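We store amino acids, tokens; thus:
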Amino acid sequence: MNGRAASRFLASLAACAAGASLLVGVQAGPAAAEVFCGSHSVDGAIWTEYTQTPGVRQALGCPTSDELGLPDGVGRRQVFDNGSIYWSPGTGAHAVWGLVGQEWAQHGWEGGYMGYPLTDELRNPDGIGVRQQFQNATVYWSPNTGAHAVHGNIGWWWGQYGYETGTYGYPTSDEYNAGHVGGNVDDNNGVRQDFQSGKYLLWSGGQADAFEACQSACIGYGGTTDTKWVVRTEVYVNWSDSRLTSVHVTPTAAAFKTVLGTDDAASDLNEDWRQVGSNTRMFPGATQAEQNSTFQQLMCHAEFSYPNTGGGHFGGPTWDLETWRPVLTGNSDTILRKMLAAKCNWDTDS
């Protein structure tokens, strides 16, 4: 766990501890109670959150209800002009309001997958956005991206690469179901979440007809490039065996070979290679041999991607580069013959 991840984990523990101490206070002695705005009484741990947490009373305004029970029969809430305070024995009392509160409400409030709030709204290190932690997710908001929840394996991967100030930036969508995740056939389904600058993360539980890296559970990440030769690049890493890593390039129409054309990706291979990695990390920590092998695979696809008589192109709609394939040796003619014989998917250098 990196330093920032550890600090956020400790913050969550501190929030839970604070909630527990509030509960002990309520049980041990008389609960504080006060009538606000001439209407509703605010009591106990909710009163403490409302009156003692900086900024909460100003943000919420006046109470518009008394304390209310929740459908789970465990927690309590109280409604105010601009939001609510939710309490449960395990999480304490925390205010939820604004666009973060709307995002939480869209996913079922405390009865949804996020659960109860663990913290109040927190300012992010960039001084621009805010976040609020819930039991099973965190909602991030910024002026340019809105409020979106991050959770699960996608959230874990995002955190490993720096949260909102790292590789991917703020989320620009929630998780959503997507096709062609981990493979090229229609039933290769998974989930996707979009982030800033055209980057996104993917998750698949694994399917037999998927790419090799995704025949069991895999994480994927990609970036929309929209350059001369490359539309987007996606990288998949097997969740159990990170050695199973593959890069999948969606070429532009201009990148494919034509019978008479000379201006294609094969004629501009070094620039094609640069564009493949221009908006995503192809494979962090790859060895030189793995990089050489994937460059050869890209060269093979670019060189032999002629149109098929029945439609499409030789090699398929994506150019698939697998890190585990060996580097081909020999002179240029020998290497090209090996590539063509293996249809760009060689398992041995022969």
Remarks:
- Residues 1-30 have pLDDT under 50 and may be disordered.
- The chain has eight helices and 17 strands.
- The chain has two domains: 3-165, 176-342.
